[in-house]
């Protein structure tokens, strides 16, 4: 099996001599692959550090946190770079899959806010926060009143109106079963009651379509 990348966060550790809360930090090792892996933590100066659970197994697509403690912080150890090496192994063959080195340094003093700016670089500057301008109430009200409604924007459906007129005209025609007594309408314009029911149904559907809000 070829070597695979090893994903660890953070990529470096910084301990501060006068800040006890920095003497304990976490290393998160990720396993984004579809198989389980074994890991092992090595160090260039094991007498200075204590690592809880330096060996173990990481399940597929999961991660594990490794607790690192600086046990012997002293001024003589400051500004000396040490390294942790996290190695991944195949669970079945114990073959090395990949490794990653994490540099570690003990720094004099305490962490300050200026360290963030140094990490970002001289070309980066903080952005100023400005509140959004408040629009006057009169202008906002005028804008709402002048906004056209959705009903006004809808065009009149000419086809629906034409169908409605045809249905109304058909309903006004004489019914076929009625006796024809000197009617001025031709005989072929006399329609049956069933056909009038159909025209009534269509007229109702078209009215709902035209008059809906």
From TrEMBL:
Topology class, membrane: Multi-pass membrane protein
Keywords: Membrane, Transmembrane, Transmembrane helix
PANTHER family (UniProt xref): MOTILE SPERM DOMAIN-CONTAINING 1, MOTILE SPERM DOMAIN-CONTAINING PROTEIN 1
Protein name: MSP domain-containing protein
Pfam families on file: Motile_Sperm (PF00635)
Predominant subcellular localization, coarse grouping: membrane
UniProt-annotated location(s): Membrane
Signal peptide per UniProt: none
GO cellular component, one term: cytoplasm
Transmembrane region(s): 156-173, 193-211
Keyword Membrane: yes
Domain MSP: 8-89
Source species of the chain: Euphydryas editha
Source taxon at top rank: Eukaryota
């Amino acid at each position: 099996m070829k070597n695979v990348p090893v994903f660890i966060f953070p990529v470096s550790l910084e301990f501060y001599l006068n800040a006890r809360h920095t003497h304990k930090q976490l290393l998160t090792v990720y396993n984004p692959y579809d198989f389980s892996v074994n890991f092992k933590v090595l160090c260039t100066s094991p007498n200075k550090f204590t690592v809880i659970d330096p060996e173990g197994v990481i399940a597929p697509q999961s991660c594990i946190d490794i607790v690192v403690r600086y046990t012997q912080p002293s001024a003589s150890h400051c500004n000396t770079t040490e390294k942790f090496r996290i190695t991944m192994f195949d669970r079945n063959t114990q073959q090395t899959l990949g490794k990653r080195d994490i540099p570690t340094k003990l720094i004099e003093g305490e962490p300050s806010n200026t360290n963030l700016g140094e990490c970002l670089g001289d070309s980066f500057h903080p952005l100023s926060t400005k509140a959004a301008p408040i629009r006057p109430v009169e202008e906002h009200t005028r804008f709402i009143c002048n906004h056209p409604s959705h009903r006004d924007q809808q065009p009149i459906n000419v086809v629906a109106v034409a169908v409605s007129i045809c249905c109304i005209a058909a309903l006004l025609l004489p019914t076929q079963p009625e006796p024809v007594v000197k009617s001025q309408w031709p005989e072929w314009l006399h329609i049956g009651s069933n056909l009038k029911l159909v025209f009534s149904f269509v007229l109702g559907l078209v009215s709902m379509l035209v008059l809906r809000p």
